[in-house]
Automatic annotation (TrEMBL):
It comes from Deinococcus arcticus. Keywords: DNA integration, DNA recombination, DNA-binding. It comes from the Bacteria. Residues 1-87 form the Core-binding (CB) domain. This is Integrase. The lineage of its organism: Bacteria, Thermotogati, Deinococcota, Deinococci, Deinococcales.
Length: 295
């Protein structure tokens, strides 16, 4: 008995849920697989064995005609993972996406907050209803590069001695420990000791109603601070990119950055760490081997 392609996609999604993939990742995987089925089934392709490289090339072309390169790339990545899973499970001998070229992504500089802008937000946060909490949130976002979901999931005992924060509810279920500076720890200590409500809740950052902060409340907090400071509205992800760029500007290496950000591949880290031309010039000036030669 042959399982249909649709049945295999359902098994794959169940496998991903069991591995602890985040809800956002699961939604992206399901959308990608559903859209591919909508393309393949009307063409009479209902079995995994019938998916050919020619079909996949045609699908890549189809996506390129109706989506941006970035959106097409995002739609195809879950398919590569799906067919690799079928290959590993020996349902397919080879993935039909082998040697199928992915859309080329433009190498553009994504928005990233800089140190001066963070300082403006820190200054504005002194006058909010929760100045110690808001400044601590800003400090942790910019000092560690954690995702907003990871920030909201932090608990009191995740702040460890020795300048470390344990990130337990990380993307993909992979926990990690990230370093944190003394300055950021001082902001956290002031918040916990003077402003955080007395409660049995273990979560570090609490909202006005003493419930854990979530991604919406963090975004709203940032929006208020940015508007008050007269700055563009920065999202939590611009802090993550800002951390990555400033880490490299300050002579950090990309391999350590990959571990801190919790990326499984350097390719993902490199998307965050796109430096401006002036940054490259400054790095080259410090690292140039010719500069060390005698005149």
């Amino acid at each position: 008995m042959h399982f249909t392609l649709r049945q295999h996609t359902q098994d794959f999604l169940m496998h991903c849920r069991q591995k602890g993939h985040a809800p956002g990742t699961m939604a992206a995987y399901k959308l990608s697989l559903d859209k591919f089925l909508d393309y393949a089934e009307p063409a009479g392709v209902t079995l995994a064995e019938d998916v050919t490289r020619t079909l996949m090339r045609a699908y890549v072309t189809h996506l390129g005609e109706c989506l941006s390169p970035g959106a097409a790339h995002a739609r195809l990545r879950p398919l590569k993972t799906f067919f690799r899973w079928l290959e590993d499970d020996e349902i397919l001998e080879k993935s039909p996406m082998q040697r199928v070229p992915m859309p080329k992504l433009p190498r553009k500089v994504l928005p990233a907050i800089d140190t001066a802008e963070v300082q403006q937000l820190m200054d504005v946060a002194r006058s909010t209803k929760h100045p110690f909490r808001d400044r601590a949130v800003l400090a942790v976002l910019f000092d560690t590069g954690v995702r907003v979901s990871e920030l909201c999931a932090l608990q009191l005992d995740d702040v460890q001695t020795g300048g470390r924060i344990r990130v337990q509810e990380a993307k993909g279920g992979r926990s990690r420990v990230v370093p944190v500076s003394r300055a950021a720890l001082r902001h956290l200590t002031r918040y916990v000791n003077t402003e955080r409500p007395e409660t049995r809740l273990p979560y570090l950052f609490l909202s006005n109603d003493e419930t854990p902060m979530n991604r919406d409340s963090v975004k709203q907090m940032l929006e208020r601070l940015c508007r008050t400071a007269g700055l563009p509205v920065f999202t939590p992800h611009t802090f993550r990119r800002g951390f990555a760029v400033n880490y490299l500007r300050n002579s950090g290496d990309v391999f350590t950055l990959q571990r801190i950000l919790g990326h499984t591949t350097l390719e993902m880290t490199n998307r965050y760490a796109v430096l401006q031309d002036d940054d490259l010039k400054d790095v080259h000036r410090r690292a140039s081997p010719v500069s060390a030669l005698k005149r």
